[in-house]
User: Fold these one by one.
Assistant:
Number 1:
Amino acid sequence: METIKKYALIGLRLLVAIILIQTLRFKFTAHPDSVYIFTTVGLEPFGRISIGILELIASILILIPRTTWFGAVLTLGIIGGAIMMHLTILGIEVNGDGGTLFLLALITELSAGIVFWNEKDSIPYFNQIAYKVNN
């Protein structure tokens, strides 16, 4: 059972990284859909490029075993913001995509949350603080 869990978590890490990386070409090439999204939320072009860079960093960090937890936290923040933009400004469907971007954001957020939960014990100093609080 432990082997299945190990490979499932590796799969989730890869899924998050792949989703983050595949969206980078839209952000970095100023694809019209990406420009539309970031213009609508008032973050074009600085936000589009900055978030693209942060997503690239998160996708690398989540794949490195020692920094998986930090990549997951960064992903949770970035994608949490994207979900909020969908729920407040953009709407679920953007430019007739049928809600695909929103669904990908939900999948990424859920996957990163599961990865983080399973990596929480590897956060530096977290165990020391938890030990002091409980003793």
Number 2:
Amino acid sequence: MTGDKFTIGLVQMTSSNEVAENVAAAEVFIREAAAGGAQLVMTPECTSLLELGRKALFAKIHVQDEESAVRRFSALAEELGIWLVIGSMPILVGDKVANRCFVFGPDGVLEQIYDKIHMFDVDLPNGEQYRESRSYQAGEQAVLADLPWGRMGLTICYDLRFPYLFRKLAQAGATMLSVPAAFTQQTGEAHWHTLLRARAIENGAFVFAPAQTGTHASGRKTYGHSLVIDPWGKILADGGTEPGVSLAEIDLTLVEAARTNIPSLQHDRPVKDPA
């Protein structure tokens, strides 16, 4: 299971505010992806729980060592013999929550974690308001995961709007970039495809973006359209707006080709602050 080529499966979900229900739904799709030949399977942000209420959120989560969903996904990766990236799960850390991505190897071992760095604190034109920083603790560390086919840079959702993070990951050796997300319907329609293609093009890397979709228990609407994008910006798979699985064949030799044609990762220059 090494070399330059592999099959990826992206899971698209409509997560609810019930952990057991979401873990069961994710498992069905993960099994479907593995049965379809996926060697790497990825799920969206908020896989195990999409709960906007602070009090309800804290009542439903645990520290990592006591979180049953972590154990279940570890066992599932081992059973299926796949690399499994759980886009994020809320994990209790002190008096706040980490929005944490988990990377499991095919032996079930937890190989890497990443805590979302950028907090979604916004007021949208349609009246929707989000304040992630009220409940969540921002991560501080950029993270790479070593897979059999190369290195993957880990990001989550709102991180997408901060290109310096993606460039840092690419310049540190990432040939793949993951962006599990729960993008809102409004911002997704305006920016999702454009920003993801930009991150792929400017870094000459594959982008894998499994997404939440539909209307959730809180009334929040997410955009869907899980995407696999090649280093030239070509969309290889688009999950549309229904829950399900998208499969795509990945050829990492395209990374070297793109970076040879446009070697911009080597051309950064120091720039003085505006006068």
Number 3:
Amino acid sequence: MNGFNGLGLHLGNLHLLSDAKTRSTSAENFDGAKGRGGMATEGTGAGCARDLGVGWKVSPSVELQPGATFAMADIDGPGAIQHIWLTCSPNNWRNLILRFYWDGEAEPSVEVPLGDFFCNGWCERSNVNSLPIAVNPAGGMNSYWTMPFRKHARLTVENRSVKPVILYYQVTYTLTDVPDDAAYFHAQWRRSNPLPYKDVHTLLDGVTGKGHYVGTYIAWQVNNTGWWGEGEIKFFLDGDKEYPTICGTGTEDYFGGAWNFEHPYGEYGSFSTAYLGMPQVIKPDGLYKSQQRFGMYRWHVMDPIRFESDLRVTIQALGWRSEGRYLPLQDDIASVSYWYQSEPHAPHPALPDPDGLEVI
């Protein structure tokens, strides 16, 4: 194997051979078994394939009933998830809950509404052109986060809506040895709606163990007029209490922009790059859409935030008031934090009910 275990490739090692085995689950091969794809005799495409028969896109998707939980992947390891692609109607993105479980754990390591996980928290399509997350026309959602597991991986979707949902998906993974120092992938969703006056939005808290923080997505609704992004992000590491080890200088600074994201003059400049972006700017329409909404991501791929024992992450919401003073804002802020850590992990805070998840 030439020292390469098959967890992932980049251009520098793409030429190396490996004993890793590539497999994939989808509605055409639910368990990813070798030589068992495209054998369905019934499914959501059966009517369309009635003249062609088996092998002709008989089962391209699944229908999730209200309240049902479906396993997109249920895999014995060792190995690693390498790519997830899926798509469904945008109006369901907050009502579909992704949960990923590693090595038989009872509590999920990932628990996030589907749209937010893919940097689309407003239930409106927005293209994302980044390294670990890509969202392409018209709502094709892709994750390239490497997610190793040693014994077992289970990836589920819960339908919390009151209507059936059609879901197309494919989970591609490798079966290979996992190094002893490989950490487990985690992601957590939180919302402050509205953020209490003079409070901070907590992106992550209660994390214990050793690991590294690798990304932030925020869906931010501004409830005041004027600029809203003066607030600082803060990383409290390894016993930090009142004051953090890492403190940012402003919201747009953290997401890789500057000077209010204003470009050209008088407009927000949306952008989407490998590691940083504000791909979504939703403007008021003068009728029903009364607030400005933004979607922003920041991937710490080249600069992971390392922690030895514990981690807490917060961000302020600050605008301006008279006489050059800061104004603490009371905005609607929903966030996803992405990180790797050793297990066990602390349970995620309970997700709110459908009303608490809803984009309103």
